[in-house]
Amino acid sequence: MATTSDIKNGFTFKHNNDVYTITEFQHVKPGKGPAFVRTKFKSLSTGRVLSETFPSGHKVEEVRVERHKMQLLYRDDMGYHFMNNETFEQATIMEVMIENPGMMREGDTVEVLYNTEDNMPLTVDLPLYLEMEITYTEPGVKGDTATNTLKPATVETGAEVRVPLFINIGDRIKIDTRTNSYVERAKS
């Protein structure tokens, strides 16, 4: 059992018969009254984000997890098929367990979070940033760059990203996978 003093971002625990990971936390010690920890945590089975406040010293059941680097081999109607880069074992993971499946290409390396008790995958974490090529976008109008306007663009995986007007077909861009948003042009 862990206490609220063990809580940090990425901490995985069991709560109400589900497994959650902490996405945000704040330790609060008011001038009057006992200290408490305000948290936001995400369900690893449904993806729902919940907020809850725990009194300081509250006990939670920690879930031991391991992170494995795995490579996406292919996708079919059973799910996404990954291979462990060290042991070469393969695993099939359902699409609902992946935060942003539209951003994955065959051959990409991701981190898969495994529950050590039953060796079941919990979630798939993509790298924070990916570089992709624009396969389709409307051409920007010359001189129309005075505003911070964005246009839709399709990347090589088929996902849609909003990009500035000066981005054209064939350009490589850097994408934030947490928000599916344009960061910058990729440096050659």
Automatic annotation (TrEMBL):
Entry annotated with the keyword Protein biosynthesis: yes
SMART domains listed in its UniProt record: EFP (SM01185), Elong-fact-P_C (SM00841)
Translation elongation factor P/YeiP central domain sequence ranges: 67-122
Domain of life: Bacteria
GO molecular function, one term: translation elongation factor activity
Domain Elongation factor P C-terminal: 130-185
Locations listed in the record: Cytoplasm
Keywords: Cytoplasm, Elongation factor, Protein biosynthesis
Pathway the protein takes part in: Protein biosynthesis; polypeptide chain elongation
CDD domains reported in the protein's UniProt record: S1_EF-P_repeat_2
InterPro entries: Elong-fact-P_C, NA-bd_OB-fold, Rib_uL2_dom2, Transl_elong_fac_P/YeiP, Transl_elong_KOW-like, Transl_elong_P/YeiP_cen, Transl_elong_P/YeiP_CS, Transl_elongation_fac_P
Listed HAMAP family: EF_P (MF_00141)
Biological function: Involved in peptide bond synthesis. Stimulates efficient translation and peptide-bond synthesis on native or reconstituted 70S ribosomes in vitro. Probably functions indirectly by altering the affinity of the ribosome for aminoacyl-tRNA, thus increasing their reactivity as acceptors for peptidyl transferase.
Family: Belongs to the elongation factor P family.
PANTHER family given in the database record: ELONGATION FACTOR P, ELONGATION FACTOR P (EF-P) FAMILY PROTEIN
Name the UniProt record assigns to this protein: Elongation factor P
Organism listed in the record: Neolewinella antarctica
Upper classification of the organism: Bacteria, Pseudomonadati, Bacteroidota, Saprospiria, Saprospirales
Gene transcribed to yield this protein: efp
